[in-house]
Amino acid sequence: MVSVNENYLDMKESYLFSEIAKRVAAFAAGHPEKRILKLGIGDVTLPLVPKVTEALHQAVDEMGAQATFRGYGPEQGYDFLKEAIGNYYKKTGVSLELDEIFVSDGAKSDLGNITDLFSVNNTVLIPDPVYPVYVDTNIMNNRKIVFLSANAQNDFLPLPPAEPADIIYLCSPNNPTGAVYPKELLQKWVDYANHNRAIILFDAAYECFIQSPDLPRSIYQIEGAKTCAIEFCSFSKTAGFTGTRCGYTVVPKALVYKTLRGPELSLNKMWLRRQTTKFNGVPYLVQKGAAAVFTEEGQKQIKESIAYYAQNAKIIAQTLDELGIYYIGGINSPYIWLRCPNRMKSWEFFDYLLNNISVVGTPGAGFGANGEGFFRLTAFGNKENTIEAMQLIKNLLA
Amino acid sequence: MVSVNENYLDMKESYLFSEIAKRVAAFAAGHPEKRILKLGIGDVTLPLVPKVTEALHQAVDEMGAQATFRGYGPEQGYDFLKEAIGNYYKKTGVSLELDEIFVSDGAKSDLGNITDLFSVNNTVLIPDPVYPVYVDTNIMNNRKIVFLSANAQNDFLPLPPAEPADIIYLCSPNNPTGAVYPKELLQKWVDYANHNRAIILFDAAYECFIQSPDLPRSIYQIEGAKTCAIEFCSFSKTAGFTGTRCGYTVVPKALVYKTLRGPELSLNKMWLRRQTTKFNGVPYLVQKGAAAVFTEEGQKQIKESIAYYAQNAKIIAQTLDELGIYYIGGINSPYIWLRCPNRMKSWEFFDYLLNNISVVGTPGAGFGANGEGFFRLTAFGNKENTIEAMQLIKNLLA
C-alpha cells in the first residue's frame, strides 16, 4: 500500500489572502456604491514593456516557421539569456561563470525545489515575518525550523544568532517588510555562514528597486559569499513577468560539501542534475522576452515602470512621515511596512481602513508572529489610486 | 554545517545522448562529405501550427496593454484551459471535475515533482526499458526500486507481478518501445493497484499517436482507475510544445489515503498544496496557445502534424516488415523499437549504421538492461530523410 508524505499534515493553510478577499467581498456587497482602493496587492499592474512584447512576437514567429522552430532547449536556459544575466551582474562588480547561472520559471519554484539538494537533517533559520514559501517547503520535508525575530528594535534586519544553523533564508529587499540589508550587516551573515559551513538562500527578487548605490543588489557583492550563498532572482517585479514566468538562480561552483559517505558533492552539479531530471527549461519565447529586458532600450523601458512604482512608494512614505507613523521600506523597496496606529492589531487596522475609507492593505500578522501590530502597503497599484488612498488615510488618522 | 542530499551520490550519469553526440561528431569530423540522417531524435521538428501562433500573438498583445495585462494566474492553470482539457477527455468518455486537472510546464516536471507527495518508504515498480526520469527521481529520494522486465516474450507490455508494490510507473504508448497497452491488459494493472492500494503514475504523453479506437488514450477509460491512478499528459508531442512547455496532470479526488498518524490525506489536495507552494503557474500566453490546440481549427492543424509523423513511422515499419526484422511500436506511436539484426548489440548496431550509411538511431541499451540488443528509431524527422534512411537500411541489411 502506498504511504503518503505525512508531513503534509503539518502544513497550515494560509488564510491571509483568502481572508482578505472574503472581508473585501463582504464589504463590497454591503456598500455597492463605494470604490475600493487596493494597496495590498503584491502583483505588478503595468503591462510588459514594448521591447519585451516585440521580442515575444518575434519569437512566436520563429516558432511558427520550419526554419527557425525550436524544440527542447537546454534545461538550464539558453546561453543568450545566461550571457545577458551575466553581463547584468558585471555591472554590480559580480563576475559569474555561465554555468553558475540557471534560468527557471521563477524564484518561487527554485526556492521551493532547491530543498531537494539538502538532507532533511538540517536546521533551517528563517526570519519572522516571512514569505511563507520558505516555511512551507521545509515543513513538507520535516526539517527543523528556527525562527529569527525581525522587529522594530533591529529595524527588521536581524543579525546572526549565537547558535549555528545549517540553512539560512534571507530576503533583501525584504518581502513583506521592505527592509534592505546594508553591506556591513550582510557581511556578518556571510561570515557567520562561512564560519559554520552553513548555506544562505538569498532571495533577491526585489533587487531592481534598490536605488541607493551603497546597498548591495546581490549577495555576491559581499566578500566570501560565493562559498556560502545561492541567489534567487526573478523578472517578475523587475519587468512585470509575474504572469510570464521567468527567473534565475546562481549556484556558485565553490559550493562543495563533504558527505558522510566520503565523496564531495557540488551544489552546482547537483542543481544541474536536479533541473535536467525534473525540469525541461523555460519556453524559448519567454527566454527571448527576458533577454530583451537587458537591451539598452529594454532597460530604459523597465526603469520607467520601476520609477512609476517607486513614485507610489514615495507617496505612501511621505504621508506616513507627515502622520509620524513608524515604517520601514518604501525607499529601496516596493513594500512599506508600518506600525498600526493607536496600538491597533493588524486585522483591527485592516477593518478600520476598509470600513472607514474603503482602503485595502495587508495585515502584518499574516506573515508571522512578529508581524502582529504591523501592516503592509504596496507600491504596485496605480498612481491616482495611491494618491487618493493616502489622502484618505491622512484625513482619517491626522 | 549543512548536510547535502547524499542520494545524489547514487545517481548514475546518463551517457546515452552525450555518447551518441560524441560518436556522431567524431564520424562527421572524419567524413565531412557525408550527410548524416538522424532518426534518433525524440524531439518534434514541425513548427507550431498557425492557430497556436495566432493565439500566442494575441496573448502577447494582451500582455502589452494596460487594460488586458495579466499578472499572477492560478498556479493550477486558468479555467479556460482546464475546461478545454476537460472537454477533450469527454471525447474519450472520461468525465473529470475541473479541479482534478492541473496545468503544468510539462509532464517531465510533474512526473518528477509528484514524488514529493509520497513517503520514501514505498517500493517503486518500474518497467525496464524505461524513460530515465522515473528511475532518477526515485533515487534522489532513496526509494526502493524494483524493475519489471519488458521484453519480446511479453511484447514489451509487462503484466503485474505476484508481489505487491506501492508506486507503479506505466507509460503507454511507451517511450522508448512504442508498445501500447490494450484495455484488457491495462485493466489487470488497475485491478492490481486497487487490490494493493497502490498508485499508478500513468504517463500518457504520447496518447495523440493512438489511431486505433480500441486502444485506451487515458487510463481513466479503465474501470476503477480513478481510485488508483494519476495521469500525466503534455502538449509537447501533441502540438509541438517541446520548446513552448505546457502539460497537464489529472489527480482524481477519489485518491484518498489513510496516514499512520490517523487523518486521511487527499492526493488532489496535496498536489494543489505542492503546486501553490512550489510553482507559480504556466505563462498566460503559453496557456492561451495551448487552449488554441483544442479549437476545431487547432485540432485539424495538429492532426496534420501528427499524421505527418505517423506517415514516417509507417515508412520505417514497412521497411522493417520487408526485412523481416522484429519490431514493435510505430502504428500507434512515434517510436519504433526493433531487434538489432544478426544478434548485434545495441551500440554495435549503432556504429554499423553510422559507419556504413550515416544513419543515426538510439541504442536500446541506453534505456535499461532489457534494451540490450534493441534499437529505437523515431518518426519525428522529416519525411524525405526518413525515406532515404530506410532505403539505405534496406540496401544494407537486405
Structural features, described:
Two copies of one chain form a homodimer. Chain A is of the alpha/beta class. Chain A folds into two domains: 13-42 and 297-397, Aspartate Aminotransferase, domain 1, CATH 3.90.1150.10; 50-294, 3-Layer(aba) Sandwich (Aspartate Aminotransferase, domain 2), CATH 3.40.640. Chain A is 38% helix and 15% strand. Chain A has helices at 16-30, 50-63, 79-90, 107-113, 132-139, 183-196, 236-239, 267-278, 284-292, 296-323, 346-357, 383-397, and strands spanning 37-38, 101-104, 123-128, 144-149, 167-171, 199-203, 229-234, 247-250, 256-258, 264-266, 327-329, 335-339, 359-360, 362-363, 374-378. In chain A, the strands form four sheets. A seven-stranded mixed β-sheet of chain A has the order 2-8-7-6-5-3-4, with helices on both faces. Chain A is globular and about 65 Å long. The model of chain A has no long low-confidence stretch (mean pLDDT 96). The interface between A and B is large, with 82 and 82 residues.
